[in-house]
Amino acid sequence: MANEMLDDAVRSLRDSGVRMTPQRHAILEYLTTGHTHPTADDIYRALEHRFPNMSVATVYNNLRVFREKGIVEEMNYGDASSRFDFVTTRHYHMICEGCGKIVDFNYPVLDDVETVAAHLTGFKVDRHRLEVYGTCPECQSNVQ
């Protein structure tokens, strides 16, 4: 599944005129292999041994390109660092207020919220985002 997602992302980027460098490929690979919602620093630290000349700025610049092409979503949740989410399907985020862990979940009924919002307000809806905050099971265990 991860290889298929990686291949689709590479093909999409190439089709839109983005040149695939080894660094870009490595960043995409990192994002598609289960590393959910990393910061640019997380990605940099994970890849710096493979690319000693790569800087954090290089990671940020590539993530910006991926965001502009719709491959990743940049998430800002009030802390200092943006987190990046590889875009696969529409989903929502559960965020632990204790440790900052972010878990994806899907609730298809919420897909109708855009239609309802447009109907009730007359707006043309472009997108929506939902975050639910709480305490993850690990943090709950640490409190007890």
From TrEMBL:
Zn(2+) binds at C96, C99, C136, C139. Its cofactor is Zn(2+); Mn(2+); Fe(2+). GO terms for cellular component: cytoplasm. Transmembrane segments: none annotated. InterPro entries: FUR, Fur_C, WH-like_DNA-bd_sf, WH_DNA-bd_sf. GO terms for biological process: negative regulation of DNA-templated transcription; regulation of secondary metabolite biosynthetic process. Keywords: Cytoplasm, DNA-binding, Iron, Manganese, Metal-binding, Repressor, Transcription, Transcription regulation, Zinc. Fe cation binds at H128. It is found in: Cytoplasm. It holds the Pfam family FUR. Belongs to the Fur family. This is Transcriptional regulator (Fur family). It comes from Exiguobacterium oxidotolerans. The gene is perR.
